[in-house]
């Protein structure tokens, strides 16, 4: 893939810049295909997939394939992954449902980018097992999904950000199911329930509203869009957005982070708010290093990078945002152009959604 075919954002990022960032991610890849947070750091199944998606965007498809092969090889028989690895060893054996579901987003992204049906067919059993595992933990009253499973059983808490991401992954999984000819109607019902919970029942989720991700992720995941999405953005813009720097990770700390800023860019792009998306994308570039890597964040009260880490997934979020803004690859709309979010009109006859006040 020529540099001229890579995402570029006028006045902000060139195709060569995009490739340099992707190469900084690829440089961390371990021999088994794992993509850790940084060289020598740990690998988690979600950020690993985000990194693979960024490599795909930049044309580093062999490295992306190796990453997906790692995911298939490390999946446990029940469809889950350990929450954390380091250099091939499991550091945290608990399973995070959002981490597990994200394989569906990654596989659909690769399929859409490359039109490689054989890859999707090969990965389909991995995706199917992962989604079945996740949906086994959809035990809440409104369709929320417990966030983790460990040796002592499932966590009773459901997280808004995690469930918003799972909602998106479920929709990706449904597209894949149709593509490979293995429809999963029960997944559609699960998506209906989860989307309803995200839109109508905030009480179903652990209160973490000081985190910016809880603000924009229902939009990024597709459960909330249109007028409701614009209203949600307006309601807390001043709490999180710091002029010329990006957005805060948490509302009560003077700390802006690059990945969250780029995810908000993707959410704004999905709403059609491109002017503010472009401005935020430009604002976060102060975190870029000369090798194309990105610092995780900046404490703007004292001008210090914190943590003192250049994380692969920050660069990956930047590449995905650049692709969305520039409309470059076939998969640039992975967070924008999926089928409309399932909605509930009245009571379903199977009573699978509780629509009571």
UniProtKB/TrEMBL annotation:
UniProt-listed GO biological process terms: carbohydrate metabolic process
Entry's Gene Ontology molecular function annotations: transferase activity
Superkingdom of this protein's organism: Bacteria
Presence of the UniProt keyword Lipoprotein in the record: no
Keywords in alphabetical order: Transferase
InterPro entries: 6-hairpin_glycosidase_sf (IPR008928), 6hp_glycosidase-like_sf (IPR012341)
Protein name: Prenyltransferase
Organism the protein comes from: Nocardia uniformis
């Amino acid at each position: 893939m020529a540099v001229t075919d890579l995402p570029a954002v006028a006045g902000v990022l060139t195709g060569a810049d995009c490739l340099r960032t992707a190469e900084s991610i690829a440089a961390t890849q371990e021999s088994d295909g794992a993509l850790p947070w940084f060289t020598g750091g740990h690998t988690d199944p979600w950020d690993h997939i985000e990194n693979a998606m960024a490599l795909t965007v930049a044309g580093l498809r062999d490295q992306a394939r190796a990453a997906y092969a790692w995911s298939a090889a490390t999946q446990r028989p029940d469809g889950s992954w350990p929450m954390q690895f380091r250099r091939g060893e499991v550091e945290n054996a608990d399973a995070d449902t959002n981490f597990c579901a994200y394989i569906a987003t990654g596989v659909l992204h690769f399929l859409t980018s490359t039109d490689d049906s054989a890859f999707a067919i090969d990965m389909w059993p991995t995706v199917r097992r992962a989604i079945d595992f996740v949906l086994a933990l959809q035990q809440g009253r409104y369709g929320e999904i417990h966030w983790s499973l460990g040796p002592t059983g499932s966590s009773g808490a459901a997280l808004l950000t995690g469930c918003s991401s799972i909602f998106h992954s479920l929709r990706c999984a449904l597209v894949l199911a149709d593509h490979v000819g293995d429809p999963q109607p029960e997944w559609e019902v699960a998506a209906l329930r989860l989307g309803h919970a995200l839109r109508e029942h905030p009480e179903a989720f652990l209160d973490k509203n000081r985190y910016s991700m809880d603000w924009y992720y229902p939009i990024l995941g597709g459960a909330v869009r249109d007028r409701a999405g614009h209203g949600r953005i307006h309601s807390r813009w001043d709490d999180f957005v710091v002029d010329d720097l990006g957005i805060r990770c948490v509302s009560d700390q003077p700390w802006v982070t690059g990945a969250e800023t780029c995810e908000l860019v993707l959410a704004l792009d999905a709403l059609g708010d491109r002017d503010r998306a472009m401005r935020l994308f430009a604002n976060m570039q102060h975190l870029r290093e000369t090798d194309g890597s990105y610092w995780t964040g900046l404490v703007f009260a004292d001008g210090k990078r914190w943590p003192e880490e250049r994380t692969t997934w920050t660069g990956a979020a930047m590449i995905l945002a650049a692709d969305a803004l520039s409309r470059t690859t076939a998969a640039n709309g992975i967070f924008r152009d999926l089928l409309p979010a399932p909605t509930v009109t009245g009571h379903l006859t199977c009573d699978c959604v509780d629509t009571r006040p």
